[in-house]
Each structure stands twice: as structure tokens, then as C-alpha cells.
């Protein structure tokens, strides 16, 4: 057997992937919802090894996430390339100052990307762009039909895009409302042209266990579209709740320079029961064309953890360091904030070699931008640890580690005052907080560690390096899973500091942070 790659390609919260090829290079983007910067951009030359080169939306002026509810914000993006320019089209959902579909452009996918071009009269989510051979550009998206027949009824619509004015022009064409009778949530539409025919690929079933990929084709871009009799061309919904890969859907296709076809898609890995803390992840699966239709994972029909590699020269990238000593003048690309930052709450220069977090009044439980610098949980078994120096000045102040799924479901492992300094472990579930344990914090500088094995999360501290003492072991971590907490995102581990509704001038200094996958 030849060489194989491992799925998921991008472990952790990297859903709704979209991919395009430019020459021998491949670029991929995923959704980010309430997290900032928005829409990470990845680069690959072999479709297997990816490294992040930037974010599409990395300036506050581009991305008003202020007050966004969890699992709102930036939904599924599409990335395309035409005539020397990269295009990303996306939806900002339920924004407090701006909402809707927009386009940004860049000559270099690493950035900088333009300010958004907001589209008028473009309802729905999951927009996509298609550039035809004749130079015309087309927009596809979904919407509720005028004569909706049931609650989850959606249709895919098409309209021409004027690239000079960035406006939709001409007639609106309704293309399809899904392959199955009563199809739920027809979305994630992408158009392709293969051997003179137009192919419309969409997702159906909703982005959960019943997710599926379906496809239709036409001799004309405006239709009518013929549904593939083999639909859905990919789903795992018939394999049961205990199958190790579930929720396959929201796919995009790419043809390699060698004529192979591949599909990127999202799926989840449940563990400890039907719970997935890592959220929706990016997977890769081979595609072959037969009789004018794509066959996904030929001969198998499923997404597996291992498939033969593409026929492309292997190109690897230096591994991301497991430890960040905060010696760089800028934060590494894996770090994110909650919502758009409107003030300077962190510094890498005030105390060189440290990440300084200014305590802000905003709390994790609020739809705000707290003093939070976090990264994704990417492994079912992992260890995260840090060194933090912090002296609370009152019982409102706290600093330490947060493990969060959303505003109502998280663990907070932090130093606070009661009135003497204590190390406290708080669990917030269904919007209710509970102190699980606390103990005196005798040193201003502490080492904090979280280690997880499936749904068992254990918390430790040390006054000196590697002299770990258990605070709480094998705490049930299922509150960090999407089936419990709801929404569309995955778990984050963050450095966090707050004055909990009170004004203050205190800081917390993090000397280093280390994240290691254990399996």
C-alpha cells in the first residue's frame, strides 16, 4: 500500500472549509464565528500539509463583532481566484452594527485584504463565487423561498456580480432546493464547470448528525439543474451515533494540476459518548468522476481517518512550536480574541518576554471583548500549561486559564482574592456558576496546568517548575462539547484576566504558554 495521510487535516475548530488552487499552490479558509481575527488562511502544495499564512479579516475596521452572540458572526466563507486577484465572500450574521454578505479581495492571500464590499439585496448565508470562462462572475447563496413549504426549506439562488462596482446585477435565478423531498437547510452552494457542464454542489440536512453533500448539473448556468440519482454523494448519517466520524458535509472541490479531484469538508469526532469538544474539523477525501458525476471516496463511500495521498510532491512546513515564550513583537497566528478588540488590553513590549494582560471589567459570561488570548483545543488528549504572575488587589480581580465553549459553558482556573489570594476552579454550565474547589495561592508566580484525556479534565498548579499538585482530577468536560453547549464552534484554551465589572489598573503577566497534543 502506498503512502497515506491522516484525517482531520486541520484538527480542532476549523469548520466550513473552502479551497482553491493557483498553479501549484492551494489556499484554504474556514469560518470563525465570534472570534477575532477572522477567517484563517492556510497554504499547501500537496493538499495534506498546511500552514497558516494569515487571516482574511485582521483589522477592527473590517470586522464589527461587537456584542455578537456566541456562534453568530462569521459563517462559512468561500475563497476563489481570478485574473491575479483572490476573493473571499462571507456572511456576518446578527451583527449589532452591520450584517449581511460581503466580499474582500487581495493580490496576496497572506494579506492585506481589502475593506469589505457589502452586498445589497443578498439574503441568506454561505455565499459563493463562480468565475466562468467568458469572464463573467456569478454569486450563489441560499434563502427562504417565497412559497416556503416547511420551516427548514431553503433554495439556492444565482445572480451575476459586477466586479467593477461589486454589485449584484441582472435577473435572479432559482437553481435548486435540494435533492431530497423535504430537504432541510439547503446551503453551502458551490458552482463548478467540468467538461462544459455546470455542477451545483450543496449541503443538506443541517450541520449536525444528518449532514450530507448533494449535487446537480446543468448545461446552462441558470438551469434547469438535474439532480444526481446517487444523491447524497456523501453522508455518514446512516452509520449511527457511535461511528468515529460524524456530520460529514459542507464540502468544496478542487482539481489538482495532475487532474485528480479532491474534496475538503467538515466533520466531527465524537468521544466519551456522542460529545465533540473540538467542534467541526476539516477533512480531505478523494473524488473520481464517472459517467459525468463525482464519486466521493471511490469503493468506500465514507470519510476515513486515512486515505492514500494525492499525486503531488510532498511539501512539509516547520512544525508550529508547542511553547510560546512571547519573545516576538506580535502574537503568533494561532492566538485569537473573543469579538473585535476596541482597546489595547494586551502587550508584548511592556515587559519583554511576557504577555501582559490588562484586567478589564468584561467577563467571559458577557457578549463582550474580555481580556482573553486563546487558542483551539485540537486534540482529544492534550496538556496545556502556563506561567502566570499575578497579585489580586481585591476579590473582583482574577487571572489564569479559561477553557470555554461559549459564554454559558466554561471552566475558569484562576487566581483571585477571598480576601487572601486563592486559586479557584469555577465551572459555568447552562449559565450557572459553581465553585468546584479552591485553595490558598501562596506565591505571586504560579504554574497552571490542564490535562485532558477524552472527557476527563484534570487541573494542577505548582509553586516551582514541575512540582505539580492536583487541584481537581477527572472533572467531567462534556460541558465543553457542542451537543451540550449548543452552537457551531469548538473549545478554546485561553489566558484570561478580569476585574469582573469593576474599574482597575492591575495586570497579569504570562511568561510562557505551552500546548501539547498527547495522541
The coarse overall form would be globular
Fraction in helix: under 10%
The largest sheet is: 8 strands, antiparallel
- Please indicate the count of domains: 2
Radius of gyration: 23 Å
CATH level 1 name of the largest domain = Mainly Beta
Summed over residues and divided by their number, the pLDDT gives a mean of: 97
Measured between the Cα atoms of the first and last residue, the distance is 24 Å
Q: What portion of residues belong to β-strands?
A: over 45%
Q: Which class do the helix and strand fractions yield? A: mainly beta
State the CATH topology of the largest domain.
Tachylectin-2, Chain A
Q: Helical element count?
A: 1
- Second-tier CATH architecture of the largest domain: 5 Propeller
Show unreliable segments.
none
**CATH superfamily annotation of the largest domain:** Glycosyl hydrolase domain, family 43
Q: How many beta-strand runs? A: 40
Give a description of the structure:
The chain is mostly beta strands and 519 residues long. The protein has two domains: 4-308, Tachylectin-2, Chain A (5 Propeller); 323-517, Jelly Rolls (Sandwich), CATH 2.60.120.200. 1% of the residues lie in helices and 48% in strands. The chain contains one helix and 40 strands. Strands 26, 28, 29, 31, 36, 37, 38 and 40 form an eight-stranded antiparallel beta sheet that branches. It has a six-stranded antiparallel beta sheet with strand order 30-39-32-33-34-35, with no helix packed on it. Strands 7, 8, 9, 10 and 11 form a five-stranded antiparallel beta sheet that branches. The chain is globular. The mean pLDDT is 97.
Amino acid at each position: 500500500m502506498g503512502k497515506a495521510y491522516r484525517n482531520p487535516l486541520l484538527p480542532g475548530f476549523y469548520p466550513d472549509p473552502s479551497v482553491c488552487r493557483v498553479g501549484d499552490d492551494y489556499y484554504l479558509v474556514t469560518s470563525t464565528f465570534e472570534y477575532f481575527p477572522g477567517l484563517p488562511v492556510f497554504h499547501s502544495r500537496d493538499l495534506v500539509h498546511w500552514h497558516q499564512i494569515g487571516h482574511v479579516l485582521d483589522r477592527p475596521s473590517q470586522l464589527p463583532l461587537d456584542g455578537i452572540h456566541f456562534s453568530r458572526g462569521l459563517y462559512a466563507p468561500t475563497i476563489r481566484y481570478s485574473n491575479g486577484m483572490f476573493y473571499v465572500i462571507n456572511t456576518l450574521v446578527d451583527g449589532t452594527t452591520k450584517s449581511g454578505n460581503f466580499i474582500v479581495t487581495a493580490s496576496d492571500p497572506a494579506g492585506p485584504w481589502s475593506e469589505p464590499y457589502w452586498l445589497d439585496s443578498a439574503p441568506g448565508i454561505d455565499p459563493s463565487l463562480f468565475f466562468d470562462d467568458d469572464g463573467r462572475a456569478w454569486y450563489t447563496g441560499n434563502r427562504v423561498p417565497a412559497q416556503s413549504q416547511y420551516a427548514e426549506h431553503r433554495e439556492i439562488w444565482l445572480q451575476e456580480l459586477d466586479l467593477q462596482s461589486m454589485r449584484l446585477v441582472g435577473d435572479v435565478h432559482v437553481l435548486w432546493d435540494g435533492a431530497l423531498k423535504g430537504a432541510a437547510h439547503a446551503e453551502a452552494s458551490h458552482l463548478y464547470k467540468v467538461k462544459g457542464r455546470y455542477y451545483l454542489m450543496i449541503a443538506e440536512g443541517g450541520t449536525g448528525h444528518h449532514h450530507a453533500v448533494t449535487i446537480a448539473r446543468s448545461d446552462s448556468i441558470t438551469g434547469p439543474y438535474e439532480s444526481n440519482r446517487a444523491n447524497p454523494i456523501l453522508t455518514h448519517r446512516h452509520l449511527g451515533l457511535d461511528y468515529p466520524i460524524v456530520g460529514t458535509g459542507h464540502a468544496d472541490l478542487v482539481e489538482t494540476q495532475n487532474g485528480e479531484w479532491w474534496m475538503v469538508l467538515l466533520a466531527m469526532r465524537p468521544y466519551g459518548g456522542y460529545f465533540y469538544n473540538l467542534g467541526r474539523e476539516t477533512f480531505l477525501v478523494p473524488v473520481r468522476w464517472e459517467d459525468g458525476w463525482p464519486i466521493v471516496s471511490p469503493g468506500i463511500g465514507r470519510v476515513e481517518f486515512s486515505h492514500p495521498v494525492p499525486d503531488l510532491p510532498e511539501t512539509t512546513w516547520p512544525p508550529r512550536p508547542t511553547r510560546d515564550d512571547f519573545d516576538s513583537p506580535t502574537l503568533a497566528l494561532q492566538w485569537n480574541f473573543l469579538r473585535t478588540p476596541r482597546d489595547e488590553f494586551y502587550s508584548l513590549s511592556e515587559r519583554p518576554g511576557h504577555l501582559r494582560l490588562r484586567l478589564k471589567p468584561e467577563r467571559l459570561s458577557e457578549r463582550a471583548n474580555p481580556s482573553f488570548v486563546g487558542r483551539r483545543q485540537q486534540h482529544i488528549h492534550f496538556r496545556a500549561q502556563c506561567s502566570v504572575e499575578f497579585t489580586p488587589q481585591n476579590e473582583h480581580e482574577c487571572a489564569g486559564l479559561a477553557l470555554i465553549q461559549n459564554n454559558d459553558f466554561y471552566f475558569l482556573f484562576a487566581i483571585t482574592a477571598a480576601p487572601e489570594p486563592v486559586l479557584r476552579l469555577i465551572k459555568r454550565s447552562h449559565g450557572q456558576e459553581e465553585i468546584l474547589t479552591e485553595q490558598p495561592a501562596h506565591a505571586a508566580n504560579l504554574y497552571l496546568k490542564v490535562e485532558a484525556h477524552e472527557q476527563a479534565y484534570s487541573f494542577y498548579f505548582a509553586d516551582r517548575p514541575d512540582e505539580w499538585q492536583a487541584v481537581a482530577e477527572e472533572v467531567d468536560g462534556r460541558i465543553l462539547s457542542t451537543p451540550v453547549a449548543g452552537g457551531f464552534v469548538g473549545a478554546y484554551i485561553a489566558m484570561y484576566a478580569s476585574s469582573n465589572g469593576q474599574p482597575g489598573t492591575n495586570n497579569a503577566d504570562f511568561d510562557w504558554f505551552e500546548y501539547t497534543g498527547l495522541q
